[in-house]
Amino acid sequence: MRLYDREGATHVHDHPQVLFGVEGTLHVEVQGHSAWVDASCGLVVPAGATHAYCAARTARVLVLDDLTGATTERLRRFALPKQWRNSGIQVDTLVDTLLDASTVRARRRIDLDALAERIDADLARSWTVADLAAACCLSPQRLRARFAESLGQSPLAFVRERRLNRAEQLLRRGVALDTVAIEVGYGSSSALSAALRRVRNSGARELRQKRAFL
């Protein structure tokens, strides 16, 4: 598992590499061809292909080196199955994923990092699917389909995830529940508490106890 948070110089390997996107977006240029890796797709970099990478924000990528065979002889992006990480990270499973994966067609990329940053900057906003689709220059229907395909969740579930991430951070710092609820876009402290219980199986008290323990 590797973290990329900067630009890497052009280089080459005498063995193929297979990149499985885990979190964030890694931009890769291979032999002059532009590609990327994120939570929805992986990338095959053939042996001997010059390549460079760039990550505007930290990207987490699982890299398999020296996986030789017919599936790694050419450059291609491939689709990752929904929730593939939940099955555990085992080499045999990843090889099977690569063998069975379909090639991803060239199309407009959803910049999940930029979308997450936009949401985080205004968590109190009543985000709608139409708002999110407009930010991505897609129709609401297409955005729903792309999110289901790449992340296995709806656009509004993505917003909820950002809100709860921020809520947990603030509660661990000791910020009052009422204040947190307003900041992250929940109508009341009880609504936020219910969401934390339902989605994260945690609550304000437990989060504060963890803070005190740390």
Task: Characterize this entry briefly.
This protein has 214 residues and is of the alpha+beta class. It has helices spanning 91-100, 112-120, 129-135, 140-150, 155-172, 177-183, 189-200, 204-213, and strands at residues 2-4, 7-11, 17-23, 26-30, 33-37, 41-45, 51-54, 59-65, 76-79. Strand 4 and strand 5 (33-37) form a beta hairpin.
Write the layout of secondary structure elements.
Layout: E1 2-4, E2 7-11, E3 17-23, E4 26-30, E5 33-37, E6 41-45, E7 51-54, E8 59-65, E9 76-79, H1 91-100, H2 112-120, H3 129-135, H4 140-150, H5 155-172, H6 177-183, H7 189-200, H8 204-213
Antiparallel strand pairs: 1-8, 2-7, 3-6, 3-8, 4-5, 4-7, 6-9
List keywords for this structure.
about 210 residues; alpha+beta; 5-stranded antiparallel β-sheet; 4-stranded antiparallel β-sheet; 8 helices; about 40% helix
Q: Helix tally?
A: 8
Overall shape: elongated
Return Rg in Å. Answer: 20 Å
Task: Kindly estimate the percentage of residues that lie in beta strands according to DSSP.
Answer: 15-25%
The portion of residues assigned to helices is: 25-40%
Structural class of the helices, strands and pairings? alpha+beta
Largest sheet: 5 strands, antiparallel
Taking the alpha carbons of the first and last residues, their distance comes to: 27 Å
Low-confidence stretches: none
The succession of helices and strands, N to C, reads EEEEEEEEEHHHHHHHH
What is the averaged pLDDT score?
A: 83
Spatial ordering of strands, largest sheet? 1-8-3-6-9
Number of strands: 9
